[in-house]
Amino acid sequence: VVSLGKVSDGWNKAETNTAVGGDAASSFEPSSRQGIENIFAVRIEGPGYMKFQWRIESSLGNSKDSIGCYMDDFNNPLVSLNQTGLAESPEWGDNWVFIPPGYHSVYFIFDKNSKHPSTAYLDHIQYAKAQPGKPTFVDFPSDVINVELGETLALPIRNADGFPFPKFQWRVNEVDIPQANDSVFHLESAWDFDSANYSVVLSNRYGVVNSHAVKVNVVGTGNPSLAEGLDAGNLKFLNRGQNSWVKISSPNSEGQDAVMSSSSDDEVSSRLLTMIEGPGVLEFAWKIDGSDFDGGELGFYINDSEVSVLKSKSDWKKTTHFIASGKQKLEWTFRLGVMDVGEYKGYLDALQFYTPSNSQPVLTTQPKGVNVEGLEDVSLEVATEGWPIPELQWFHDGVPIKGANNE
């Protein structure tokens, strides 16, 4: 076991009442230091299973600090932790990882980037050699997990067995979750409809074992005033940026209110978040108030991809978007450009999400012919209506164009 801290003292033994045996390995960094990586290394012979506990303690509940567990290199962590707890919140995270045959170096890296004092703790490292056989049991840290609305759910396995190392298939309400095949199940931005029973199936060539179910409760109401201002009482909303969106009185908007974000600083942004389950249609109105932007924008994103944007002062504009099936993350981001001077305001209102009645496809906007020279790009656009969402296929002289399926 080696502590590889360079700029700071690295990792040291520390007493803590919440640790197993009353002490743990810890790495402290003050508010004055950022960009620090403190490394704790262990050399192990596999195959086997390693278990350990860790936590991050900070004066701020959420920060940019993290711990990662790596094997042999620093490219991809086996597991990671990027949520901090306050000093009076002594919750430890359980971890369980595979160590393949041969000698391996396991690294625990405390990555300190925030402007707040933070301490990483590591404790109760255990290692057991793997024995050939089918998986026979799966243990979780708890049978019930409560996660705040909008936070990341991490559901780890505390202990299991079986060799060759088992494959994983996570399930929700006894239905397989696509591409959920890691030893830790992660769910970004947990929402109320994610409250359910989660389980995992472990399998290798010798057999299969099904875990018991863990009940996940997503708690929290979001910001009700934002839902009121948007006229969307059936949805929940959260502020996620440095600036906030707030409900305001707005005589020229629907319902006499709206939500607004104001800014005079290009280094900060405001983000409004909600999650929905598609398919359906989303409608909302928006506008920008202030001088013409110079690089700033009010943007609408679906699953982190920008789908619509305003870049200049405007009156209220209504926009409509088809929402695909499944869980979808929706965000509205308002920010300024580096040359913007003065105060600017972004507004949102009249947000609706609904499932239309079935109807046949209709082209509401036909493509327009264009004349181009040389190697210029050509852009053709259409607009459609109909439900379910119409499937599109572009043609060239009567022949389908491969991959040309959007508006």
TrEMBL record:
<dbReference type="InterPro" id="IPR050958">
    <property type="entry name" value="Cell_Adh-Cytoskel_Orgn"/>
</dbReference>
<keyword id="KW-0732">Signal</keyword>
<dbReference type="GO" id="GO:0030424">
    <property type="term" value="C:axon"/>
</dbReference>
<dbReference type="GO" id="GO:0008046">
    <property type="term" value="F:axon guidance receptor activity"/>
</dbReference>
<keyword id="KW-1015">Disulfide bond</keyword>
<dbReference type="GO" id="GO:0043025">
    <property type="term" value="C:neuronal cell body"/>
</dbReference>
<dbReference type="InterPro" id="IPR013783">
    <property type="entry name" value="Ig-like_fold"/>
</dbReference>
<dbReference type="GO" id="GO:0005886">
    <property type="term" value="C:plasma membrane"/>
</dbReference>
<dbReference type="InterPro" id="IPR036179">
    <property type="entry name" value="Ig-like_dom_sf"/>
</dbReference>
<dbReference type="GO" id="GO:0007156">
    <property type="term" value="P:homophilic cell adhesion via plasma membrane adhesion molecules"/>
</dbReference>
<dbReference type="GO" id="GO:0050808">
    <property type="term" value="P:synapse organization"/>
</dbReference>
<protein>
    <recommendedName>
        <fullName>Ig-like domain-containing protein</fullName>
    </recommendedName>
</protein>
